[in-house]
């Protein structure tokens, strides 16, 4: 297959997906001697453009898993902005926080094909859970990157050997299952759709990092303690704040985090799919 460039496109509010997609892109770039163009889909401005990918571009698309699926508020942007040319080779990658990726990878595979791309490989990787300071802490780690490196090398070999892109085999027929319902510590449903981060104004230095990092542009520039738009609970503002001034107090949300930390303690391993 003649390829001319690699695109690394990721939505990544807390950085895990970016790390993983960039690692795959860098290995492939080195082995295939191709330039990499990164598209940070976290930034709202970048989600307002269309990206037309030719058949000689290899596209890596990364998304975190939210409630077992592609984040629902970002899904329309993925659908609208990624335009393949019919045979554009793509590597869908979903990144989850050690609970489960449920339907997210299949959803991203189906979306890629609907948008004119051919998935030649796919992966589900683990990264620290954005809600927690302990769940999947330190992931992706050395072991993950070793496996990722092996996977990327296999893809490079496949793309060097094959003259045409062949799609991986996966279940296209079964309808996607609904979103995962978050549970509280007592295992009843945790409803925290309306939860928003609060700001400790004693700690806040009004640096504006949270305003610029929010993928929904929902934090007011004039008053950073005001959430003026949709909050997708991505935790970008919490993680970026150098003063640790942002926090959640919503009881259902905190109880869900407690449940996750108590239940999903066993290490999950990555899943890799590649055409053979
Ligand atoms: C709103 C939300 C929902 C999440 N849902 C899931 C989930 O269903 N399963 C899971 O294992 N991790 C889940 N996570 C954890 C993320 O998938 C994980 O933290 C991922 O690394 C975030 O990607 P990022 O670092 O690129 O932002 C969720 C995180 C957020 C913020």
UniProtKB/TrEMBL annotation:
Bilayer-spanning residue ranges: none
Source domain of life: Bacteria
Domain 4Fe-4S ferredoxin-type: 195-224, 231-251
SUPFAM superfamilies the UniProt entry points to: 4Fe-4S ferredoxins, Flavoproteins
Keywords, in A-Z order: Iron, Iron-sulfur, Metal-binding
Pfam families in the cross-refs: Fer4_10
Coiled coil (UniProt feature): none
Domain (Flavodoxin-like): residue spans on this chain: 6-156
Key word Phosphoprotein present: no
Entry-linked InterPro entries: 4Fe4S_Fe-S-bd (IPR017896), 4Fe4S_Fe_S_CS (IPR017900), EFR1-like (IPR047964), Flavodoxin/NO_synth (IPR008254), Flavoprotein-like_sf (IPR029039)
Protein name: EFR1 family ferrodoxin
Gene source species: Anaerobutyricum soehngenii
Upper lineage: Bacteria, Bacillati, Bacillota, Clostridia, Lachnospirales
């Amino acid at each position: 297959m003649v390829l001319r460039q690699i695109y690394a496109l990721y939505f990544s509010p807390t950085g895990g997906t970016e790390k993983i997609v960039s690692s795959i892109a860098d290995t492939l770039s080195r082995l295939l001697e191709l330039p990499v163009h990164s598209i940070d889909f976290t930034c709202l401005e970048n989600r307002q453009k269309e990206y037309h990918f030719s058949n000689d571009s290899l596209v890596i698309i990364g998304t975190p898993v939210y409630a077992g699926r592609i984040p629902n508020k970002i899904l329309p942007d993925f659908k609208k902005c990624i335009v393949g040319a019919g045979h554009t080779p793509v590597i869908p990658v979903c990144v989850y926080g050690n609970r489960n990726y449920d339907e997210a990878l299949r959803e991203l595979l189906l979306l890629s094909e609907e948008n004119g791309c051919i998935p030649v490989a796919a992966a589900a990787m683990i990264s620290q859970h954005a809600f927690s300071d302990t769940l999947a802490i330190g992931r992706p780690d050395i072991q993950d990157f070793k496996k990722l490196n092996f996977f990327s090398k296999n893809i490079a070999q496949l793309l060097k050997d094959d003259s045409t892109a062949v799609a991986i085999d996966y279940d296209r027929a079964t309808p996607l299952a609904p979103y995962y319902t978050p549970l509280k510590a007592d295992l009843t449903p945790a409803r925290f759709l309306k939860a928003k981060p609060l700001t400790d104004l004693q700690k806040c230095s009004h640096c504006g990092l949270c305003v610029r990092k929010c993928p929904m542009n929902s934090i007011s520039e004039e008053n950073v303690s005001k959430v003026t738009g949709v909050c997708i609970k991505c935790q970008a503002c919490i993680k970026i704040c150098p003063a640790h001034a942002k926090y959640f107090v919503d009881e259902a949300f905190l109880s869900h985090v407690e449940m996750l930390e108590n239940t999903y303690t066993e290490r999950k391993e990555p899943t890799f799919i590649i055409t053979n």
